[in-house]
């Protein structure tokens, strides 16, 4: 057994329709987990579910709007009916709206916090409730991983709402870890650096993006797959004594 095996586990991943969420869901399946993929629109999850199932894995797509508590609860109900109770949750769903703090619409500010902070809390809390009911205080196998950003501790210009929400995520993870320490649930936070995705690759090929990359110590971007080793470890049995941690995985970009 390696420290990244998830055999016998059920992992719920939010924001699984693209980017980091999709890659972590696939990595969890490859590590042996049954994976519930959550997003607002399940049609965007069909290809990934099919890919996992074609490789012999178990996968289920569920609709979840992380801002809406009723939607979160209904999604967990669907996961329990289709796969069983999740014993690991990767809360990854998030958005970003760029703009000057002097000019950004307050509705946009509220939207970022509603998804990135409120949604993170609702996802983690409902997962914890299910884990406790399923026996995590005795088993100690509950895992919650909140996906934040280097914006939790490093200023990203033009992204004040986003950085505010991610700093909140980091403290939320530590607070929940303390509160659930005797509930058999470990809570940790992952802070990724800049990653090339389908949405931003064009910008990183332009002058502004190239200047940003040139400012990094290693002068390069990360890939989504670079996050998998840490994420899998924090969802595995090998992380039994790791809780309340905030782990930066950014290839030194924030140094």
UniProtKB/TrEMBL annotation:
Any one GO molecular-function label of the UniProt entry: D-xylose 1-dehydrogenase (NAD+) activity
- EC number(s) recorded for this UniProt protein: 1.1.1.175
Q: What class of enzyme is it?
A: oxidoreductase
Q: Which Pfam families match?
A: adh_short_C2
Gene3D superfamilies on file: NAD(P)-binding Rossmann-like Domain
**Chain segments annotated as coiled-coil in the UniProt record:** none
Which UniProt keywords are present, listed alphabetically? Answer: Oxidoreductase
Q: Does the keyword Nuclease apply?
A: no
InterPro entries attached to this UniProt entry:
NAD(P)-bd_dom_sf, Sc_DH/Rdtase_CS, SDR_fam
The family classification in the record reads: Belongs to the short-chain dehydrogenases/reductases (SDR) family.
- Protein name, per record: D-xylose 1-dehydrogenase
